[in-house]
């Protein structure tokens, strides 16, 4: 269980503790990063965090192997759709073959997200198509201009 806590903290933070630098399973960390859609450049965060720790060198080859496995989870139509629907950006880390399907799935999710956001805005009790104070008028309590 302690190893899982170490790995989860390592995979979600940019700054690592000295213990995380020394005890991390870099393939598992890479898998986690790949599943999140992180690029190969993200490894630099680990290199910088562990630079001052004696005897701790992040293993780029193991990390990249894990990241490539994790990208298989990230580069799916379902994942693309979920990212769009939740309002997240889609990271350009997937292989080019099949990218059209991923972009289409992301666009559909993003469309749903935007529509839902706009509907929520319209349902707001403070909605005004002009915004408060635009054109010299807006919502005033009881219709008075004070």
TrEMBL record:
Highest rank taxon of the organism: Bacteria
InterPro entries, per database record: DUF2799 (IPR021242)
This protein's name: DUF2799 domain-containing protein
Organism of derivation: Psychrobacter frigidicola
């Amino acid at each position: 269980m302690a190893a899982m806590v170490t790995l989860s903290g390592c995979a979600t933070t940019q700054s690592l503790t000295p213990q995380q630098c020394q005890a991390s399973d870099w393939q598992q960390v890479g898998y986690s990063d790949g599943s999140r859609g992180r690029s190969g450049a993200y490894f630099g965060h680990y290199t910088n965090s562990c630079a001052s720790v004696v005897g701790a060198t992040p293993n780029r080859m193991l990390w990249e192997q894990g990241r490539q496995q994790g990208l298989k989870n990230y580069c799916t139509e379902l994942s693309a759709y979920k990212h769009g629907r939740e309002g997240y950006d889609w990271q350009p880390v997937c292989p080019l073959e099949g990218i059209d399907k991923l972009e289409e799935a992301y666009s559909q999710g993003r469309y749903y997200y935007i529509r839902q956001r706009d509907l929520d805005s319209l349902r707001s009790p403070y909605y005004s198509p002009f915004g408060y104070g635009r054109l010299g008028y807006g919502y005033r309590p009881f219709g008075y201009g004070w």
